[in-house]
Specification:
Length: about 525
């Protein structure tokens, strides 16, 4: 037999708990009403139950002892607590029983020895005992589940599976309509859990889709367990903790246009390529809105405390600029700048930044932004991760544009959203630089779309400013006109210097040439 149910009762003064068992091999009884050739009469006198035999053939004293059980199929069983005589005993019903009198025929009641012995040391064979069955079950999570605790961000969902198997001969048959795997959820109402159960012969595969419902940080746990597994099994349950918070390692990543096409060795060489990167002057600071040679930012690039600051002519420039890695150091060698930091694009490492991405005019940058997640594949950054762009050194000579989708237009009109007027769609982002020198941009994701502070820095150096429209075309036209006049003047001068020869009538002069061409 095996225990199929345990019940604890709190509304009784008798037995506080009981178990239900399923019997595969019948138990041997000590005696029965037929063997005693006696019917059984049960009388209730003020809560005390007297069990009386109709005959004295063998009686209670010769066949039964205190602690044995009188079993009546279909009726409550009675535990013998006192033998009064050969025909009368006192018993206690194992479940609540309120019938005053009960008459049972001789072939409908039995006596089982399911109680304790008076002398345990002399017992050679127990009438019954509890024994744990051998292990015939296993439960495993799928190979994609690498951690015990998973973190999900706003709008993310997680799909995984758990598999249970049965092997060998199990003396306890598994009902076909009862699942092997059971699930319990620690926190209800904060998530949506849907599952797909695939059941095959002696195996089950449970696929679970977990979706957070509330936009707040919280934690829950999913417990998958085998209800019929033996305690001898090394593992009978799988518990996964899910935290709705910022996943460690989730961030925005900017890629240069050549990074995805090169191997790590080629990429390292590309960082040293002067055609793709610009080497900043020592102690460089980018221009400000006050002038190209009047830096006012606190960030210093390619820092070297042993050398003077770049463009440090004005009082406002002398009073600005603070070292970070090089603070308190006497030379650049002591700043701890690694090769990786020398090509970094993060503002907190500005002292070490030596080379930045180079753009020639027209300086137009189309950032390749992706979203990195520790549990999901890398994907291009796209809505709902709307962004805005700022320049770390407070430069204003640039423009940021993107496709104005209906969602973006609605967000720009929402005055409750910080920086709502400069929100952009990251999938169509274009940054146009109008000046020269270093531009250090920071891309920040809209708040409330993630529990993470998603941002990324982009450092670009622009050179050779083109002339603004229409000055570029006016200068080109003027140069062509002056060149044509110079050629005509040279021609006339050479002919006059040659003697008295007259200029042929059919040879056009400069004035007639321009009249024929433009009239």
């Amino acid at each position: 037999m095996f225990i199929s149910k345990y019940v604890r009762r709190t509304n009784t003064q008798k037995f506080l708990s009981y178990v239900e068992v399923e019997v595969f091999k019948p138990l041997s009884y000590v005696s029965s009403g037929r063997e005693l050739n006696s019917d059984l009469v049960i009388k209730n006198e003020n809560g005390t139950y007297f069990l009386q035999l109709s005959t004295e053939s063998k009686g209670w004293k010769n066949t039964s002892k205190v602690g044995m059980s009188v079993v009546i199929p279909g009726k409550p069983s009675f535990l013998l607590t006192e033998i009064l005589s050969s025909v009368e005993a006192i018993g206690v019903p194992v479940v609540d029983f309120s019938v005053d009198d009960l008459y049972v025929q001789d072939n409908h009641w039995f006596v089982f020895n399911m109680g304790a012995y008076e002398n345990y040391e002399n017992v050679t064979k127990w009438p019954w005992f509890l024994q744990e069955k051998n292990c015939h079950n296993s439960i495993e999570r799928d190979a994609s589940i690498l951690y015990q605790t998973y973190k999900l961000d706003i709008g993310e969902k997680w799909t995984f599976s758990v598999t249970a198997n049965i092997w060998g001969f199990d003396p306890i048959p598994m009902p076909i309509n009862i699942p092997i795997i059971y699930t319990s959820v620690l926190t209800q109402g904060t998530e949506m859990v849907s599952s797909d159960l695939q059941k095959t012969f002696r195996a089950e595969n449970l696929t679970v889709n977990f979706t957070p419902l509330k936009i707040k940080k919280w934690e829950t746990a999913l417990n998958f367990y085998l209800w019929s597994a033996s305690l001898l099994c090394p593992k009978t349950a799988v518990t996964l903790t899910i935290q709705v918070t910022c996943p460690f390692g989730k961030k925005i990543k900017f890629y240069y246009d050549f990074e995805g096409k090169l191997s790590p060795h080629q990429l390292e060489k590309a960082y040293k390529d002067s055609e793709k990167f610009f080497t900043l002057p020592v102690n460089y600071r980018p221009p400000s809105k006050k002038g190209i040679a009047i830096p006012t930012t606190e960030n210093i690039y390619n820092a070297d405390p042993s050398k003077p600051k770049h463009n440090n002519y004005y009082e406002i420039s002398k009073n600005s600029g603070t070292y970070k890695q090089c603070l308190g150091k006497s030379s650049r060698e002591k700043c701890g700048c690694t090769d990786e930091k020398k090509v970094s694009r993060y503002a907190q490492e500005s002292d070490c930044i030596e080379k930045v991405y180079l753009l020639k005019h027209p300086a137009i940058l189309i950032p390749n932004l992706t979203l990195l997640h520790p549990e999901f594949p890398e994907v291009p950054l796209s809505p709902p991760y709307f962004i805005y762009v700022i320049e770390i050194n407070h430069r204003e000579d640039f423009t940021v544009t993107s496709t104005a989708t209906p969602s973006l237009i609605r967000l720009r009109k929402n005055q409750k959203i910080p920086n709502h007027k400069i929100l952009q769609d990251p999938s169509s982002l274009v940054i146009t630089m109008k000046g020269t020198g270093l531009y250090h941009f920071r891309v920040l994701a809209l708040d409330k779309v993630s529990f993470c502070d998603l941002s990324e820095d982009i450092a670009v150096y622009a050179i050779t400013t083109s002339l603004a429209y229409p000055l570029y075309y006016l200068i080109n036209a003027s140069v062509v006109t002056l060149l044509a006049c110079a050629l005509c003047a040279s021609y006339l001068y050479l002919h006059r210097k040659g003697g008295t020869a007259q200029i042929p009538v059919n040879v056009p002069t400069c004035e007639s040439y321009y009249k024929q061409k433009y009239e």
